[in-house]
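Researcher: Can you fold this with zinc ion in place?
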Amino acid sequence: MVHEVRGVVARGKGQPVSLETVLVPDPGPGEALVQVKACGVCHTDLHYREGGINDEFPFLLGHEAAGVVESVGDGVTHVAPGDVVVLNWRAVCGQCRACKRGRPWYCFATHNATQPMTLADGTRLSPALGIGAFAEKTLVAAGQCTRVDPAADPAAAGLLGCGVMAGWGAAVNTAPVTQGDTVAVLGCGGVGDAAIAGALYAGARQVIAVDLDDRKLEWAKGFGATHTVNAGSTDVVAALRELTGGFGPDVVIDAVGRPETFRQAFDARDLAGVAVLVGVPNPTMTFEVPLIEVFGHGGALKSSWYGDCLPERDFPLLIDLWQQGRFPLDAFVSERIPLDGVEEAFHRMERGEVLRSVVVL
Ligand SMILES: NC(=O)c1ccc[n+]([C@@H]2O[C@H](COP(=O)([O-])OP(=O)(O)OC[C@H]3O[C@@H](n4cnc5c(N)ncnc54)[C@H](O)[C@@H]3O)[C@@H](O)[C@H]2O)c1
Ligand SMILES: [Zn+2]
Ligand SMILES: [Zn+2]
């Protein structure tokens, strides 16, 4: 059976998204059909719309989602119809060289559904990050479903599916921040604020939030920032050094993903410090530094794919921390919008008015 649903599609570079009829097949072997309950609007969706990820238009956008499993294909045992799940975009394979070496968070062959979802005329859709959840139903690899407490509000829980997990994990898993570290986070959107909360959880003594927007800096304090720097009116590197006794933070997390912010992260960290790139650059951006500075500065430059998370380990952990009042997951939800509100939500994101707009179905 084919399910006819409504979904948000980006048809071409820079074109406003449109609500279209999407055809979703029943799950085949290893797949799950999920009724989407909520899906956050992430900056990565906008990157897709802008052609900044790849050119495989049309895209079915949306990838920060929670929902209910409607049906599963042959061989699926770890989730069943009725399960409340958060979707992840790195279902590890267990077979590749990274998985076999015991580093599944790096898996080089993550799984997605093998059957395509299409437009009504049969045009194959590229689901954002292999999910495509700005739709009433979506088809994913069963490994992309992680069961969570059904009592958790899906609008907040779904955010674990991407930005919040990526930011938290950049601090806790990738850096990793350890007890007593000084930390700076560049860019205080959903990803950056989650990195701030993660750094605090990991025992940072100081967490400095950096953004161009004073409103974002104010919100960052709510996630645990101890100091703030407005990058529009201050020399960021000098300010970070001054706030850390003249040395620079032990860890600087770039949650913007531009050459100028990564350069700040590279320069501002203390000797032997760590710079983590979790913001996603576009394919035209370059980063050039004298090699002697790489050597002379020491430490490490790391990228954080999805916060080096393991969904089965980390999603339930973050839900527990939230339910215990130790992590304000629901504070990322700025507004709840209908499926046809995504284009306007992109503009609100660009104007800095929201942390996350969440489509609720
Ligand atoms: N690595 C991953 O797995 C992963 C996962 C999700 C999102 N991302 C990426 O993380 C980035 C942030 O996503 P988001 O949803 O939080 O975006 P967002 O638009 O909500 O937030 C970005 C923030 O950066 C600020 N900013 C922009 N330029 C700046 C500058 N020069 N200096 C300081 N602050 C600046 C903006 O004011 C805004 O507050 C995006 O590039 C997104 O694609 C990465
Ligand atoms: Zn693997
Ligand atoms: Zn995302």
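Model: Folded with zinc ion in place. Residues 6 and 21 are 5 Å apart (CA to CA).
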